[in-house]
User: Which sequence fits this backbone?
């Protein structure tokens, strides 16, 4: 792609770009001065969530998550419709005042009147009033109904159909002349619409690093109003925080009172349960109870063991006594707890000793001995009976001891259970007492906190406005206007060039007729330059046709017979300048001392007669083709003023059957004869895409010059030229572009004139004298 040529394509439309630049920059400059710029007002607050949690009455020890610490609740509160509706109502944001402008209404702070609506904001409809201040009062024009009303300055009253009253401000009353004939615009809108607009212009964002910081911003055309909005939001949020705390404290105290009453009943109930439990289990003091039951278990066990030992000793004594004979003394160390037994044993042993003394003095049959032996039997039996009774007594005691021991063990084993149960009761009672004490303490704290309640909101940055307008930004807006001023004409030119299917220069033939030689460009000239093609002419048309002839010469076949060459000029449609090119090419060749015959073969629409100022009815080619007995040489116009070597055979009268005339052999005969007299025969033929006349005799030409006209010929038409060549209907074809713009192809004019040197004004007098 040739960037320079592409650039030149657009440069030729420079007036479009200049006009667009002037219009857009002027409009942008005027717009910036006419519209109200939009500013951003910001504020930064901090809400200490940790402080708020520290002041909670009832708290639990848990890990604080990010979700608990963020300010989503506050952001939802600020952007809620109820909050914003109250804000709109308090600040009257549903009423907007402007000074009327040509392009846009401009926000002004100094309004000479005050509106007072008579109906609720929700009942208002979207309506605009144009108000003009006059000496007599206010002229109110409703934009919807276009109704005019007059309200006098000193009287305030209702007008039917107008939902407000109006009066001058104190400042306007003192200096009414400065407001006269100024027109203002007042817009009223329902609360719902005002809330939507406020929510759209309001932005609430939390700091990513410090989540307790909340950034508030409002965009609008009135910075004072934006500051009021942010201040009211901060104040209302602060009041809401305090109110929520008070409400929370009130609910906390109420809840604590309820819990204290409930815990009082629960504590009393647990004490009653403890009292019943102690009474039912005969427990007065748990420690003493444990000692008593433990000692009782030990005692009962010891008694049982002693009783078992006595039983064993008794059984041993009975067995030992029974085994002993009457001559054997009985022991007295059985350790039995029978006071009379030892005496019986002593008596028995005494009687036995006495019997042995008698036996030493007498025989066994001695009555005293026999009586004493009988007495020993009785004593022994008495001892055995005593031991038997004692043994039965011990056995009965053993049974009683077993029962008592079992009961003592059971009661001792139940001590841990009773201790646990009583401990649970004591724990419950202790927990209730601790909770009860804590609730009492918390209630006192809640009452004290309510007395010294403060907000945990602090203002880090008070509302302030950045007076660098965010919309429209002057520099970007002007740069955008300048850029658009170039893009718009560029777009039009680009579309125009893309949709342009015409041929303009040789480049437009690239790809369309790549294999067909390009012969040259014929410049666009006016009527005066048309005839300036003499042998010594240095005009553009003369130079161009000489170049054309030079390029045609390269296409001509080199025959040894040295006969004249036939050059056929044709085109796609009428109006492309084939007759013009044929005429000037013939003149150029004639001025080069070549014998030239110019034939007008366009029998349907002849054009050559215009260059010679002759009638179309002048005899010519059609007359010869119709009747070959006539000599065609008699129809020639010889040695014209343009060239002494140029003869012209005009087309003659327009025949009714040009195709039949051109297809007979008379034309071929004429050309064969003419080749002997002329070096070149130039034929101006009919367009090939309109009629078939030219295609019927094109084979007679040595070279076919196909003429296309710049800014006129369509590229699609030239595509058929390839078909004509492939079919052999046209041969040895070259293309020439006619009517091309001089500046687009000729960057300079070639001249042999001596270049003039510009002399400075202060040297002109010296040069003139010399």
Assistant:
């Amino acid at each position: 792609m040739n960037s320079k040529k592409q650039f030149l394509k657009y440069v030729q439309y420079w007036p479009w770009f200049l006009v667009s630049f002037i219009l857009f920059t002027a409009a942008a400059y005027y717009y910036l001065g006419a519209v109200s710029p939009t500013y951003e007002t910001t504020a930064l607050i901090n809400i200490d969530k940790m402080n708020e949690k520290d002041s909670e009455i009832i708290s639990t020890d848990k890990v604080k998550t990010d979700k608990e610490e963020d300010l989503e609740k506050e952001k939802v509160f600020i952007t809620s419709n109820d909050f914003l509706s109250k804000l709109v109502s308090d600040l009257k944001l549903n009423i907007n005042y402007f000074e009327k402008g040509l392009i846009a209404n401009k926000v002004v702070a100094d309004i000479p009147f005050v509106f007072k609506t008579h109906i609720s904001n929700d009942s208002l409809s979207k309506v605009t009033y144009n108000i003009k201040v006059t000496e007599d009062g206010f002229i109110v024009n409703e934009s919807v109904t276009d109704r005019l009303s007059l309200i006098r300055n000193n009287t305030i009253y209702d007008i039917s159909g107008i939902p407000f009253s109006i009066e001058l401000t104190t400042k306007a009353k003192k200096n009414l002349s400065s407001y006269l004939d100024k027109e203002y615009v007042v817009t009223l809108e329902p609360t719902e619409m005002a809330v939507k607009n406020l929510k759209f212009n309001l932005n609430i964002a939390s700091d990513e690093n410090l989540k307790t910081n909340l950034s508030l911003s409002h965009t609008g055309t009135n910075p004072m109003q934006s500051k009021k909005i942010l201040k009211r939001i901060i104040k209302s949020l602060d009041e809401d925080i305090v109110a929520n705390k008070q409400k929370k404290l009130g609910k906390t105290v109420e809840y604590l009172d309820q819990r204290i009453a409930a815990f009082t009943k629960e504590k009393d109930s647990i004490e009653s349960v403890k009292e019943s439990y102690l009474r039912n289990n005969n427990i007065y003091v748990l420690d003493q109870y444990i000692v008593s039951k433990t000692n009782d278990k030990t005692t009962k066990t010891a008694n049982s063991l002693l009783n078992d030992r006595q039983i064993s000793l008794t059984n041993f004594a009975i067995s030992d006594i029974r085994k002993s004979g009457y001559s054997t003394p009985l022991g007295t160390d059985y350790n039995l707890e029978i006071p009379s037994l030892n005496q019986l044993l002593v008596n028995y042993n005494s009687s036995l000793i006495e019997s042995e003394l008698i036996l030493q003095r007498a025989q066994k049959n001695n009555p005293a001995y026999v009586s004493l032996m009988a007495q020993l039997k009785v004593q022994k039996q008495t001892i055995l009976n005593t031991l038997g009774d004692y043994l039965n007594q011990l056995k009965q005691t053993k049974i009683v001891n077993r029962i008592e021991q079992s009961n003592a063990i059971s009661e001792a084993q139940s001590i841990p259970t009773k201790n646990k149960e009583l401990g649970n009761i004591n724990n419950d009672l202790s927990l209730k007492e601790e909770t009860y004490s804590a609730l009492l303490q918390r209630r006192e704290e809640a009452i004290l906190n309510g007395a010294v309640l403060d907000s945990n909101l602090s203002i880090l940055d008070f509302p302030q406005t950045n007076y660098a307008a965010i919309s429209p930004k002057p520099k970007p807006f002007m740069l955008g206007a300048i850029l658009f001023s170039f893009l718009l004409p560029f777009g039009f030119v680009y579309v125009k060039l893309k949709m342009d299917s015409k041929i303009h220069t040789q480049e437009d033939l690239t790809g369309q007729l790549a294999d067909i030689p390009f012969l040259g460009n014929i410049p666009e000239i006016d009527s005066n330059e048309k005839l300036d093609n003499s042998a010594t002419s240095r005009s553009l048309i003369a130079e161009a046709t000489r170049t054309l002839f030079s390029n045609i010469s390269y296409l001509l076949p080199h025959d040894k017979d040295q006969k004249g060459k036939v050059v056929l000029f044709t085109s796609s449609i009428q109006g492309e300048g084939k007759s013009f090119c044929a005429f000037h090419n013939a003149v150029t060749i004639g001025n080069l001392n070549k014998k030239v015959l110019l034939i007008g073969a366009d029998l349907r629409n002849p054009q050559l007669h215009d260059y010679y100022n002759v009638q179309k009815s002048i005899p010519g080619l059609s007359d010869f083709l119709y009747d070959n007995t006539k000599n065609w040489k008699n129809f020639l116009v010889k040695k014209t003023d343009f060239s002494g070597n140029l003869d012209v055979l005009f087309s003659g009268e327009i025949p009714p059957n040009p195709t039949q005339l051109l297809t007979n052999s008379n034309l071929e005969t004429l050309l064969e004869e003419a080749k002997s007299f002329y070096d070149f025969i130039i034929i101006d033929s009919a367009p090939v895409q309109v009629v078939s006349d030219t295609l019927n005799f094109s084979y007679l030409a040595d070279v076919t010059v196909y003429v296309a006209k710049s800014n006129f010929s369509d590229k699609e038409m030239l595509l058929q030229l390839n078909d004509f060549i492939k079919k052999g209907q046209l041969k040895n074809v070259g293309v020439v572009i006619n009517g091309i713009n001089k500046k687009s192809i000729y960057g300079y004019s070639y001249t042999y004139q001596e270049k003039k040197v510009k002399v400075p004004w202060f040297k002109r007098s010296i040069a003139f004298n010399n």
About this structure: The chain has four domains: 3-35+473-499, 38-59+66-246, 286-440, 506-745. Confidence is low (pLDDT under 50) at residues 59-68, 747-757, 761-770. The radius of gyration is 69 Å.
